[in-house]
Design goal:
two-stranded antiparallel sheet; 7 strands; 46% helix; 5% strand; elongated; CIS_TMP
């Protein structure tokens, strides 16, 4: 983080003297010019190390009585001494207020509103406005305690019970290190924001200090997911933080990942490589310790593959080299890879529309499409409707392809769908290779001078080619 410069909004100098001429002489002398005062103050902060940012709404310094003859020599000395005394007291007061606030949060039996409540509450004498100012400048050890408080159910309840939106915003901003998106005043900080930002802070700065997961806090996050109020990007950022650093998930993230709503939502938005990294933390049947990542050598049940699976859309392979262009046009790819797992699901549905021209996509039509999009043939993909504007893009793309292929120039896109794309065939998958057999029909004579091979398909996001047996070609 870039350090902030010393900022003084306004300096007022008041001189009391028993002689008006002497006062004017001192006030208008070179020592009290703006440039000289700035030089003195900057010199002080350059000489003395201050271990925290400081904030004063008003700071009054009384330099005491100075003889005129000694003014030029004593003024800088008195200024430094008085400024040091004020800053030392500031640090003492700042620590005392924060310490008192943290202590309140950790109390098991706190009153419902400590600010307006009973006189014996330890936080009643803490000025909220001053506390907010102090929160933005506290040292890391206090920020760590604040983060831990947000991961404890009873401490979090105490924070929320204060019912001071500005204070909650200050806490959230501190935990997120001033990177949170600005909120409108009518949008108070939610408990899930405090929890996720606290996790992110500790994960980034003090991993060894992270507390044991609080089941009630985990339940809060799960409830927010079920209610649809949580920002999925905040959760994904936590997982990506661990993935980027190549560190094992902490116990909090493991429990979150093993919570069905969280993993299901993340599955739609994570990149394929990211999802594979996290999938080793999936719960497997019979595991005694579900908090440990799955050993790569663990024997998992193999999917049951039929020797040959009949398909009715094998003809889509006639377009295999130009499918990336369609997906790029629909913003599903980046650097020839799908941008996230949900993009792969969308691509499956898009291929079905390209082939059939309808929105309904029965399960039996998704197997080959899933393979083409880098998924398992039996992947459970929820059928979603394609927006009319995307349908138009797909239809126009197909019309453009037809116009550029001499063998198809006299065909409509419905002709191409019925004669070629909706072609019966067989899909065979084994450990070594994937084979697709395409049933021959008389119209295949139009493919005799096809501009690309129809015996193999290599798509940039697949780790192996697809072998094609287009009979009689």
């Amino acid at each position: 983080m870039v350090s902030e410069i010393n900022l003084l909004n306004r300096i007022i100098i008041t001189i009391e003297a028993n002689n008006a001429q002497v006062a004017k002489k001192v006030l208008h002398g070179s020592l009290l010019k703006q440039s000289s005062i700035n030089k003195l103050i900057n010199s002080y902060f350059n000489q003395y190390i201050i271990n925290q940012n400081i904030y004063f709404e008003v700071l009054t310094l009384n330099l005491g009585e100075i003889r005129l003859d000694d003014f030029n020599s004593l003024f800088p000395i008195r200024l430094n001494a008085t400024l040091s005394q004020a800053l030392n007291q500031y640090q003492v007061n700042n620590q005392a207020d924060i310490e008192k606030f943290i202590h309140y949060l950790q109390q098991q039996n706190s009153i419902s509103n400590p600010i307006a409540g009973a006189k014996n509450s330890e936080i009643t004498d803490v000025n909220i406005k001053e506390l907010i100012n102090q929160l933005s400048h506290i040292q890391n050890n206090w920020t760590l305690l604040l983060a831990k408080s947000c991961l404890s159910e009873h401490s979090l309840k105490n924070i929320l019970a204060i019912r001071e939106p500005a204070l909650l915003t200050a806490i959230n901003r501190k935990l997120s290190e001033n990177t949170v998106t600005p909120q409108h005043q009518e949008e108070p900080v939610s408990s899930w924001q405090l929890i996720l930002n606290a996790l992110k802070y500790i994960q980034q700065h003090n991993t060894q200090e992270i507390p044991e997961p609080d089941e009630k806090i985990i339940s809060r996050i799960t409830a927010e997911f079920n209610n649809g109020t949580i920002n999925i990007a905040s959760v994904i950022a936590l997982f990506r933080q661990a993935i980027t650093c190549h560190t094992p998930l902490n116990d909090w993230l493991i429990q979150l990942w093993q919570t069905a709503p969280v993993s299901q939502y993340c599955k739609k938005h994570l990149l394929l490589e990211e999802y594979q990294y996290l999938s080793k933390y999936d719960i497997t049947i019979g595991e005694n310790n579900h908090n440990q990542p799955r050993n790569d050598n663990t024997q998992l049940p193999e999917p049951i593959l039929l020797p040959e699976q009949p398909i009715n859309n094998a003809g889509i392979l006639v377009l295999w080299p130009i499918l990336p262009a369609l997906f790029n046009q629909l913003s599903l790819l980046e650097k020839q890879k799908f941008i996230h797992r949900q993009a792969q699901f969308s691509a499956v549905i898009i291929l079905d529309y390209l082939i059939w021209g309808t929105e309904k996509a029965p399960i039996e039509r998704k197997g080959l499409n899933s393979i083409l999009c880098g998924l398992m043939a039996d992947e459970n993909i929820e059928s979603i409707s394609i927006e009319p504007e995307k349908q138009l893009i797909i239809d126009q793309w197909l019309d453009t392809v037809i116009s550029q292929l001499p063998a198809w120039k006299k065909l409509s896109h419905n002709d191409v769908r019925q004669l070629f794309l909706q072609r019966p065939g067989e899909l065979r998958i084994d450990e070594q290779e994937i084979n697709i057999t395409v049933q021959h029909q008389p119209f295949d004579a139009l493919l005799s001078d096809w501009p690309w091979p129809l015996n193999i398909a290599k798509l940039p996001w697949l780790d192996r080619p697809l072998l094609i047996n287009w009979q009689t070609i």
